[in-house]
Task: inverse folding
C-alpha cells in the first residue's frame, strides 16, 4: 500500500502534535510548516521513520514575504520519498532581522550548495554550515538581491549614458 | 514559381584573381617607392589581425557564422583565430558578461600584448543589453577600454564584419606613437591598468 498524504500528516501530528501546522495540498502535494527551531527534528523524523522514508532533498530555497511581519523569510524544503515516489514540501518561517536557521548539511550533503545559494540570494544564515559564503554572485556584493526590498525600475531614468560606463 | 529564398542572380564579375591591399600614399619613381613607416606598419597590421573570440552567448553563434565560409572573415586577413591572448591583437567580446566574469575579461585583456584592440559585439557586451540587473556588467567598457561597438541583439554577421572593418580603419590610421603617449597612458590608468 502506497503512502498517502493523510498517512504522512497523521504520522507527523502523532510525533509533533500542535507544532506542525498549516497543512495544505496545493496540486496534490502535501505542504506544512513548523517552527524554525524544529526544522532538523522534523527533517530527521521524516528521514529516519521506517514508513515515511523521505531520504532525498530535491530542493531547498527561500521566499521573501515582506508584508508578513516577524516571519518574512520562508525556507522551503522539497523532500522526496524515492521508495513510494511521494513528494512533500516543508516550510519554516523566520524573522528577516534574525534569519538564523539550522543547517541541513548534516543530514543531506546536497544541502551544502543549496544553502549557500539561499544565503547568497536571501541572506538566510544557516547555523552550522561548513562553508557559508556566496556561491553565484560576486564576493564583493553587500546585499541580498532576491529580497523584495528594492524599488522597481524608474522608467524615466537617464543614467544609461557615458557616465555609467566609466567615461563621464 | 518563386522561391522564398532565391539565389543571387546578379552575377558579379571577378575583377581580379587576387585582390591586393591598396598602396599607401607616397612618392615613387623608377625602382623606388617612398612612404611613411606609419602607413606601411598600419597596412601590415590591419590586414593580419589575429582575433581572440571571447564568446559567451548568442553573439558568439553569429561570430561562428562570420568565421564560416559563407561570410568568411578570412577575406579580411583575420582567419587565424588565436585562442591564446598572448598571440592575439583583437579581443572580440561577444555576449553577456556577468559581473563575476568581469575580472576574467580584464585578465584576458592584460595578457594581450600591445598593440591590442577590443571590439564589443552585441547589445550585452556594449551596454548590458536587456540584462539591466544586479548580476550583469553594464557594458565591458567598465573594465576594459573598447575601440568599436557593434550594435544588434545579436548582430548579423554583416554587422560583425563591418565592426572588424572599422577596427581595420582604426589600426591602419593609428600613429605608431599612440601607445606611448600620455593620453593612452591616462586611458589605461582610468581603468586601473599600469
Result:
Amino acid at each position: 500500500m502506497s503512502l498517502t498524504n493523510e498517512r504522512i500528516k497523521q504520522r507527523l501530528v502523532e510525533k509533533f502534535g500542535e507544532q506542525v501546522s498549516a497543512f495544505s495540498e496545493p496540486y496534490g502535494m502535501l505542504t506544512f510548516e513548523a517552527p524554525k527551531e524544529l526544522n532538523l527534528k522534523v527533517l530527521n523524523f521524516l528521514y529516519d521513520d521506517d514508513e515515511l522514508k523521505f531520504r532525498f532533498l530535491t530542493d531547498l530555497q527561500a521566499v521573501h514575504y515582506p508584508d508578513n511581519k516577524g516571519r518574512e523569510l520562508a525556507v522551503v524544503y522539497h523532500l522526496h520519498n524515492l521508495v513510494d515516489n511521494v513528494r512533500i514540501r516543508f516550510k519554516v518561517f523566520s524573522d528577516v532581522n534574525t534569519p538564523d536557521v539550522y543547517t541541513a548539511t548534516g543530514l543531506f550533503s546536497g544541502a551544502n550548495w543549496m544553502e549557500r545559494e539561499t544565503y547568497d540570494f536571501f541572506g538566510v544564515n544557516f547555523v552550522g554550515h561548513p562553508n557559508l559564503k556566496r556561491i553565484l554572485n560576486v564576493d564583493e556584493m553587500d546585499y541580498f538581491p532576491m529580497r523584495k526590498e528594492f524599488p522597481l525600475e524608474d522608467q524615466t531614468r537617464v543614467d544609461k549614458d557615458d557616465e555609467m560606463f566609466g567615461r563621464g | 514559381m518563386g522561391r522564398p529564398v532565391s539565389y543571387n542572380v546578379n552575377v558579379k564579375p571577378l575583377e581580379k584573381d587576387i585582390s591586393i591591399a591598396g598602396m599607401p600614399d607616397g612618392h615613387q619613381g623608377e625602382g623606388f617607392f617612398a612612404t611613411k613607416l606609419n602607413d606601411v606598419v598600419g597596412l601590415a597590421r590591419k590586414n593580419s589581425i589575429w582575433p581572440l573570440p571571447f564568446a559567451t552567448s548568442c553573439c558568439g553563434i553569429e561570430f561562428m557564422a562570420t568565421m564560416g565560409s559563407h561570410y568568411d572573415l578570412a577575406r579580411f586577413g583575420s582567419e587565424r583565430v588565436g585562442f591564446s591572448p598572448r598571440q592575439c591583437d583583437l579581443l572580440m567580446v561577444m555576449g553577456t558578461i556577468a559581473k563575476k566574469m568581469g575580472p576574467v575579461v580584464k585578465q584576458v585583456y592584460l595578457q594581450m600584448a600591445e598593440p591590442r584592440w577590443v571590439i564589443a559585439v552585441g547589445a550585452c557586451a556594449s551596454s548590458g543589453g536587456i540584462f539591466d540587473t544586479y548580476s550583469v556588467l553594464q557594458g565591458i567598457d567598465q573594465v576594459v577600454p573598447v575601440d568599436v561597438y557593434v550594435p544588434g541583439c545579436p548582430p548579423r554577421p554583416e554587422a560583425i564584419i563591418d565592426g572588424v572593418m572599422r577596427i581595420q580603419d582604426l589600426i591602419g590610421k593609428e600613429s605608431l606613437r599612440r601607445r606611448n603617449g600620455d593620453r593612452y597612458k591616462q586611458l589605461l590608468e582610468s581603468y586601473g591598468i599600469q
User: Anything to note?
Assistant: Chain A has three helices and seven strands.
